[in-house]
Structure formats: C-alpha cells, structure tokens
C-alpha cells in the first residue's frame, strides 16, 4: 500500500505542475498580450495615418495654384504703363495707369452707402461707358453765402475719367446731362452750376473737372460720382 501511495503522489504533483505552467490566463500570458499588441498598434497607427499630410499638401498647393493661374483679366494690376499716354495707357478697360507707381490699377467698385439707393450696373467685362478712375480733394471750407445752414460746408473735388469711345463733354451744360454727384442719402445732383475747370483731351477720351457742392459740417463726408453707363466712384472729403 505504501508503495502505491509513493507512486501516486509524484504523478499527481507532476500533473499539477504541468497544468499550472500551461495556463493561458496566468500572469505570464497577460504580460505577453500587452507586450506584443500595444507597440504594434501604436506604431502602425502613427506611421500609416496620411490624411493630415495629404490634405495639407493638396489643399494648399491646389488652391494657391488655381487662384493664381485663372485670373480672367487681360492684364494683372501692376503691369507697367506710361503716364504720358492718354488714360488708360496700355491698361485694360476698367483699369488705369496709376500716377504714383506708373502701373496698371483696377478701378475699385463703389463701397460707400451713397450707392445703396443709387445702384450702378457696371461690369468691365461687358460695359463700354466712361470710367471714373480718380478724385482729388481741392478744398473743404465754410460757405455762408451760397450754402444753406443745414449744409454749411462747400467741397471742391477734381474728378478724372476716360472713355474708350471718346465724345466726353467739354462744357458744364453737356456734363450735367451725363454726370451726377451722388449724396450720402442716395439722391443725386446734375446741375451745371456745380461743374468748373473742365479740361478734355486725347480726342475727347480723357477729361478732368472740378465738382463743387454743399455738405454737412462733419469731420468727413463720403461723396459719390457717376458717369452714365459707367462705374460709380466713392471719395471721402475730410477737414
């Protein structure tokens, strides 16, 4: 009996040890899971995610290239031009030769409130009317003689324009039929008495003249100028 017990006990202990060392849920198995899976997942995710790089490179390069290469204008603002030529020199219709840089500059669309109630339909791609491209303040002074008390200040502004077809007005009477001063409230004035110092040149394709009228006594006032079938131009006079 003792001999049988001595044989059974070693066999039992051996089976228990073998079963314990093969247990997949033991501490060693858990350590293997963590060590083999986590580094592979982290490295794979970080190394194979290409969305950020692709998006940044494609969007920036495509947008910049498309915007820069598809400008429909015949010439880009900044092209050289000659101030000795009649306007617009070598610039496209809707642009003018800038006096400071001697380069082509686009005429800006009117952004002042004067044209909110005096809408202007003008497109340099399809229009052919006169282009009012510049204005210069001559004076802004009190006028108690000809201006009403509600509008005690008189401005004088020199306006410049060109027309590809020529036939620009040479007298105040003619000018009053095609040119308007637009008030801040959207009303407009075309009286001949507000025009003076009219100089027309270049086969009647270039003109400059002085516009004078009464305005409110404020530090600055937005003025609007408009040639019939042409663009609107905003200009601010200041004290």
TrEMBL record:
Endpoints of the signal sequence: 1-21
Region (Disordered): 25-84
Biased segments, Low complexity type: 38-69
Sorted UniProt keywords: Signal
Superkingdom assignment: Bacteria
Name of the protein described by the UniProt record: Lipoprotein
UniProt organism field: Archangium violaceum Cb vi76
